[in-house]
Design goal:
By secondary structure, this protein is of the alpha/beta class. It has 13 helices and seven strands. It is globular, with a radius of gyration of 26 Å.
Length: 343
Amino acid sequence: MSNSDCLFVGLDVHQRTSTCCVLDAHGREVETRSIQGHWTKMVRNLASLGKPPVVVFEASVGYGAIHDALAGCCERVVVAHPKRLRLIFNTKRKNDRVDARKLAKLLYLDEVPEAHVPTVDVRQWRQLIEQRRRTIEKRTRCKNGLKAVLRGEGIVKPRAVGGQWTKRGRAWLAEVELPGHSALRRDLLIEELDHLGRQVRRLTDELDRIAEGHPGVALLMTIPGVGPRTAEAIVAFVDEPHRFAKTRGVGAYLGLVPEQDASAHVNRLGHITKEGPATARKLLVEAAWRSVARCPAMAAAFRRIGGGRRDRRKQAIVAIAHKLSRTMLAMLKSGEVYCPAAA
């Protein structure tokens, strides 16, 4: 279809209502209407336009499923990056019709800040990684709850018992005498802990199975201190390494670069932006500590950045995590195993 035949459609999509603005090939507004009901009704309406349009909508929860549904009836589907879009749409007048019209105009001008849309398999892989992280956080809260029960009753675990969460430690915890309702709280928390432990094992087994089919996971694990959970998170969230023109782009994507406020000769750097996937960023920082302990090259970089000052250890480890992310992206692009000299 030539440009002169195109229809440009901006969509403001919600679960119960959607608004679409249609522009013709000359950028003139043909119609703007709201469609009540689930967004699948909006997809059917677009299919009845007579010719496949070029469509844009803002990324939000479930944007992957919307993208896949639109791809079946549209010539091209563009997903707008929400944060970059807010920088463009810095206005005090905002409603669904205005948003749809602005999106359509940006699409017509080819100025939409696009977001990457991974495949269904990658989206589900990411969701499993996130689910495992949330389950582990629940398990940690449960363990802290059990410790709080013991502290509340003034009970100290004997040294002879060993680790709190070993078989021996768990057996002691289940048998220790507690007054009043503390025993019930202890029993319920132990049941919850067992249940969450089974969930973590199921998720880990499934993630291990998926990782076996991705050579990039094994490749990243050649970096000292990087385990399967960190490697799979980077492979899943980076998805297509070549979408980053430069390796430093992955640091910004993962939120590991500092905020910047520069003007004339003044350049102020603040805390890291913390944009992008928090799970991948957290795993990278954990891997950075292990890498510093196991890789001489990373340890040397940590000492150089930290300058031997204890109050700079956190800044130094974030810098190492940033360095790791760039190294990982370069490895995924080249397919080469980790080389300390090149890091």
